[in-house]
Amino acid sequence: MPMYQVKPICGSHIKTDLPTCMYNLPNVHAQPGSMFTSEHALQNGEVDPAVKALEARQDEIMRKLYELKAAVDGLAKTVTTPDADLDLTVSSTFCSQSPSSTTFKGVTDLDTLLGKDLGALRDIVINANPAQPPLTLLVLHSVLCQRYRVLSTVHVHSSVTNVPPQLLSCLGPRHADSYARQMFQLGFTLIWKDVPKLQMKFSVQNMCPVEGEANVARFLFKLLSPYPSDAAPATLVDSWVDTAFFQLAEGSAKERAAVLRALNSSLGRNPWLAGPEFSLADIACYCCVLQSGSASSTPTNVQRWLKSCENLGHFSPAKLFLQ
Amino acid sequence: MTKDEVQGATEEEQQAQSKKGLKKQQKEAEKAAKKAEKQAKLGAEQQSTEEDDFAKDRYGVPAMVQSQQKLDRVLVRIQNLTPEKADQLIWLRARIHTSRAKGKQCFLVLRQQQYNVQALVAVGDRASKQMVKFAANITKESIVDVEASVRKVEQKIESCSQQDVELHIERIFVISQAEPRLPLQLEDAVRPDGEGEEEGRATVNQDTKLDNRVIDLRTTTSQAIFRLQSGVCQLFRDTLTKKGFVEIQTPKIISAASEGGANVFTVSYFKTSAYLAQSPQLYKQMCICADFDKVFCVGPVFRAEDSNTHRHLTEFVGLDIEMAFSYHYHEVIDSITETMVQIFKGLRDNFQTEIQTVNKQYPSEPFKFLEPTLRLEYTEALAMLHEAGVEMGDEEDLSTPNEKLLGRLVKEKYDTDFYVLDKYPLAVRPFYTMPDPNNPKYSNSYDMFMRGEEILSGAQRVHDAQMLTDRAIHHQIDLEKIKSYIDSFRYGAPPHGGGGIGLERVCMLYLGLHNVRQTSMFPRDPKRLTP
To answer: Where does the Glutathione S-transferase C-terminal domain start and stop, copy by copy (chain A) (predicted)?
Structure first.
């Protein structure tokens, strides 16, 4: 539909008399964003938290996209081959054939991960329901203890009564130096509380609580080793963690069986779930397999993998629980 | 001409006056007639009372109870009036809480402490018209003896604590009459803040309540508060006795100021003067030196602080603990916090109705706590405050607003209303506080907080006479005045620590009340010495 042509209301070359008492600022919009960030990073020698947040958001979106793709592919597969519920072809493409290792690599610095040390203990508070003990977090706690000086404390909130004794001692015996909180790098405070969903609080001022065992596990694992910088393997780890918590731990028997089949086929190709390296995916899946009580009746590859997990020695806290 | 006019005017006036007068007289006459009529009626009524009151001996004001006779009559407690008692004829003694007459019947609410029940006097074969009238005219808060039959009710009586039954009164006798004008109405005294303003109904201000404490204490809220307070004391004693503590009594009239020296009440003591004890600390410590190992005491403590705040009293009940420890003063913290947690648990499990009752008038969030109790260090607290934008020095004491803010931050992160703050700067603690062995800036001292307010201040004490002398000199304290205190450590003293809490403050904060006067039965502050 034709529209009227309107003459510009004011001329485009109006000269405005700017007062001389004001600063002249360069045009913010004209500056290319990429240059801005790189300059910024160079100046400070570290990445701007805003950029980091942006990256994190992007990663999150990517992760969701991959998840969606996996889900759609999975659905497509179920239509064509009723035997496989989950698609795993994606995984093989990422795997480089480097030798596997079980120690966590990568330098992680608590200062950069958790913010500047203000002379106080950095205390991670986890509220968990005694009806659902978070095995994964207990395992991660014991690994954290090998890496850092961790002050572990267990409390019972007034909203629950009668917590079984093994839950009170689940973080191991009290540290001999526990009277001096300043001597520790990290605090791990587990509170048994009547919460519908597991909850983690770290910095009340700058961070909202993290909800769900899977998300808290991701947070804790990042203190141990950085996530793969490549989005694809990182997504693979994430997807396995979600599978573990949503389908192994909470799913029906049918779903569980499907996941075990998927685990089996994936472990046939790689020593560990997310490729050549032991990762959070293995920890989460191991704990959830254990918790679901199906550890004895698993396919061969999964059996072998469970054995190798046990040989690492990280899982004694979780095993202790199930006895 | 002018004269005439004037005369005319006065005549008119007179006429007007007489007219007015006439009217007045008429009115008066009418009034008198009405009065006479009324009196006649009243007289007739009275006559009729005397004539045909068949229930004459079923009500009245009997002679004052002077223990003339010992009746074997069993009086039932209102709280025991349950549907199982239906159709029984019982006696009970209670106060008239409210009364409402309606034609041929009169509804009473009878109260015993926090329990109440609806009662009914209705004209029938047991009660006469005169009896109903008598019942309706009994003043509120009077004490009555009542014989009544218990009846189940179809619909629950929402306004009473006994909802399933009501009483049908057959006899009613006044044991003690209350004056018709009460200084305050009980229903007004329990009305939640704010509700009265909206509906245009009265609320009672605090001073009126405290001036008429006897009536104020009859309210369900006050009954609940002081029952809970008694519970705190009981739990404190039970828990500590179980832990092997010994209860001691310490003198309250002392010769020298026990702490610093300021804020003590001076009393004349024969030819000299003496002081009222600010805290039993010196005596607790002397008991430790005398090998009692673990002691506690419950008793009044006096502070001559002229501060009119919501949380200061000049006399309050102190719950004090002192104990010898083996190697680390955290043993003391653990003992105290375990005791506090036992108290909180006991209150949570056994005083739920009292807590609910108080909450009705003063709504508050339930008290939350962790077991074992959360212990933070002073530097951590400073870092938390720093993060929240509060700038303060490393060796500065927490101000009251900062304390409250810190309480909120801790609650946000750990969801607890009770925590311990450890390792205070040495500079802000008294001279007898043991310095931190690793950092001379800090000390082995701690405060405990409930809902962001300090309730306990304690420390490891210096148990060495020489070190104590040095510390006293450093604080520029006159050594002569504290000679006996220092001397008590000269003959061997075990390492020890302790602390003391204020009973009123603990109750106030546990219930989330806003004034310590509500939890002190007869509060003493700079402006109040009575009742």
So the answer is: 250-310
Provide CATH code, domain B59-176: 2.40.50.140
Cα B173 to Cα B459: distance, rounded to the nearest angstrom: 60
Using 50 as the pLDDT threshold, list the residues of chain A that sit under it. Answer: 33-42, 81-103
Q: How far is CA B165 from the centre of its chain?
A: 30
Interface test with B, best of A158, A159, A181 (most B CBs within 10 A): A158
Whether the Cβ atoms of residue A236 and residue A94 lie closer than 8 Å to each other: yes
Q: What is the mean pLDDT of residues B442-451?
A: 95
Q: Please tell me whether the interface predicted TM-score (ipTM) of this complex is above 0.90.
A: no
Q: What are B472's two structure tokens? A: 């006293």
pLDDT digits (tens, 9 = 90+) for B75-133: 999 999 999 988 999 999 999 999 999 888 999 999 998 899 999 999 988 888 889 99
Q: Is the pLDDT of residue B366 over 50?
A: yes
| Among the partner residues B368, B409, B438, nearest to A157 by beta-carbon distance | B368
- Whether this model's pTM surpasses 0.80: no
Q: Hey, what domains does chain A have and what are their CATH numbers?
A: 110-223 (1.20.1050.130), 231-320 (1.20.1050.130)
Asked if the model's pLDDT at residue B216 lies above 60, the reply is yes
B221-518, CATH topology level? BirA Bifunctional Protein; domain 2 (3.30.930)
Give chain B's mean pLDDT. Answer: 88
**Residues in chain B within 8 Å Cβ distance of A119:** 379, 382-383
Pairing outcome for strands A186-192 and A150-157: parallel
- Specify the 3-state DSSP secondary structure of B150: strand
Domain definitions of chain B by residue range: 59-176, 186-218, 221-518
Average pLDDT, chain A: 78
Residue that the structure tokens 């939350």 belong to: B368
B376–A181 C-beta distance less than 8 A: yes
